[in-house]
Write a structure and sequence with these properties.
Length: 566
């Protein structure tokens, strides 16, 4: 019966085009693993036959650690745009996937956890490796399936909604690795061979933007329109909005033309975060605030802005948090792809596609969306002068402190090619990048900024890079504590076909993000460690660069682990 349950689940996943599996070694999940292993062997045999044709590609990744596996799967799902499944055993194993599932939920990324379990009758018994693991993700409001011999045939996964999924499969003793279990001919016909890493075939090509004709774009808008209550809310917002800032944070729109057109026609000041996917777009050059957060805090303190239109996810910048208290009188309009407003004091949100669609068809004009800020004014001149003042100060600071993290990030971004893929670590890495990097329109920039702290970032990077074309270099820029949090992440490198990657570890001997905030050594987790032995352990290339030598030693041909020491 165990085999029938496992076969039904795996077959259902394959029919839903779930073809990427992270397999974590265990005992209770052997029925699931045996089905996949036997499928792998059968496909190898079929691929040797004459007239064999290539079909859908299967990808198996083997892990010993569920936390690393689930973050890898999260990153892979982001780049392939389809769910990756993580197969775990029972006990605390499924609990190790909770951080990645939380990030998947808050970043609206599809992820499947397929956990093996003991029989339902064991629950609440304190039997070895038994807990109510079927309910571990219940609070997240995701797809939940609790299957055993009584109901497994009712299982039919629906991937039409972009939700995360937990499938809990209960298997009875004895657990055996059955070399005969398999799938029917209809499933086998869809596949012909197995490779360690080939999802690049499935990745959608990056959207190209014709800047010369951007305002005349023929891009077909979605048919969504703002509900009446949202239109009324919008009218009320703009009735008091005279000096708006547009803050664009993390977005995953397939096509940015509607957003660019909105920003150009809206014609107010724009602050772009790296995850907006508009980084470096020259059409927006005259609208951008370039000095970083310092301009925002000073401008709002001086009353140069009275409102914020936030488009996208929850912003990275510290200024956003000031809108909860210091600038709680500032009106905020939150336009989102998914999730909440990002502020505890704001409950209303507008859907970004509906908002842009309504703007494009002119239905928002009566709401006062385009106002006096569309003309040149003393207000605009004052904001530009303030931004230029802080921009010049920033450049002088970087020149004077040429060995600082800010200066190194700037130089690093100058070396990176626009064809490169950039993965930014949380904490200081992404903030320094937003503040100091040169404005280039990279092929892709990714981060785990839904809810994630500093765990699983390296694993997430490898999962993300595994789904990208290795013709383009994949870089990760990650802090030292984040790296130490994920030391077993290099385990997967030997299974990856994509070898065109490098991880830049910013080693400042601790968590320096808290130093200016509290100036308490106990919060910094100080250390004097380096990462050479880590790279050696997993047979990875290693390069150490002192910050003072960064300009002369850092180049685009570096691979493996690149440690930058401050």
């Amino acid at each position: 019966m165990n085999n029938k349950i496992a076969e039904h689940i795996i077959k259902n996943l394959l029919l839903q085009n779930i073809t990427d599996f992270c397999i974590c070694a265990g005992g209770r999940n052997v029925p699931l693993i045996s089905v996949l292993q036997n499928l792998k062997e059968n496909l190898k045999e079929n691929s040797k036959k004459e007239n064999s044709k290539k079909g859908v590609q299967l990808n198996f990744y083997e892990f010993f650690d569920e936390r690393s596996a689930s973050f890898f799967a999260l990153g892979r799902s982001k780049s392939t745009k389809k769910p990756t499944a993580v197969i775990t055993t029972s006990g605390t194993a499924v609990a190790e996937t909770l951080p990645a599932m939380l990030e998947a939920k808050y970043s609206n990324t599809e992820l499947i956890i397929l956990s093996a379990d003991r029989p339902k009758s064991y629950r609440n018994s304190y039997a070895p490796q038994t807990m109510n693991q079927n309910e571990i993700f219940k609070f997240l409001n995701i797809n939940l399936y609790d299957l055993d011999k009584q109901n497994f045939q009712e299982f039919n996964l629906n991937t039409s909604t972009k939700k995360q999924t937990h499938i809990n499969a209960c298997f009875e003793d004895p657990i055996v690795f059955d070399k005969k279990t398999g799938l029917d001919s209809k499933i086998l016909a869809r596949f012909t061979e197995v490779s360690g890493d080939s999802a690049r075939r499935d990745v959608e090509p990056a959207t190209s933007v014709n800047r010369a004709n951007i305002l005349e774009s023929k891009h077909e808008l979605n048919n969504q329109a703002l509900p009446v209550e949202d239109s009324l809310y919008l009218s009320k917002f703009f009735s008091n909005c005279t000096k708006p800032l547009v803050l664009v944070s993390k977005l995953d729109l397939k096509n940015n033309l509607d957003l660019i057109n909105f920003l150009l026609k809206f014609n107010s000041f724009v602050y772009l975060e790296t995850g907006s996917k508009l980084w470096g777009d020259r059409k927006l050059e005259l609208l951008l605030l370039k000095a970083g957060e310092k301009t925002l805090e000073k401008a709002f303190a001086d009353g140069l802005f009275d409102s914020v239109i936030k488009i996208g996810g929850t912003p990275t910048i510290g200024f956003w948090r000031l809108l909860e208290n210091k600038f709680s009188n500032v009106s905020v309009l939150s336009v989102v792809e998914h999730g909440g407003s990002g502020l505890s004091r704001i409950t209303n949100t507008l859907n970004v596609k509906s908002f842009l669609n309504s703007f494009a068809n002119g239905s928002l004009s009566s709401s006062g969306v385009v106002g006096d800020w569309g003309r040149d004014s003393d207000w605009k001149k004052e904001v530009r002068e303030l931004d230029k003042k802080f921009y010049d100060e920033k450049n002088i600071r970087i020149i004077k402190n040429s060995f600082s993290e800010e200066a190194v990030i700037k130089k690093m971004s100058e070396v990176f090619d626009e064809k490169d893929n950039i993965f930014l670590g949380n904490s200081l890495s992404i903030r320094n990048w937003d503040a100091a990097s040169v404005k280039k329109q990279f092929v892709s920039i990714e981060s785990h900024r839904g809810l994630n702290g500093i765990d699983g970032l390296v694993s997430g990077f490898f999962g993300w890079a595994s789904g990208l074309d290795d013709k383009n270099k994949s870089w990760a820029v990650i802090g030292d504590l984040s790296t130490m949090y994920d030391l077993n992440s290099l385990w997967i490198t030997k299974q990856l076909q994509n070898k065109n990657w490098a991880i830049v570890v910013i080693n400042n001997s601790g968590g320096k993000i808290f130093k200016p905030m509290f100036n308490q050594e106990i919060l910094e987790a100080r250390h004097n460690l380096n990462f050479q032995a880590w790279a050696k352990m997993f047979n990875c290339q290693y390069t150490k660069i002192e910050a003072k030598d960064f300009s002369s030693q850092f180049n685009k041909d570096l691979k493996g682990i690149v440690e930058v020491c401050f």
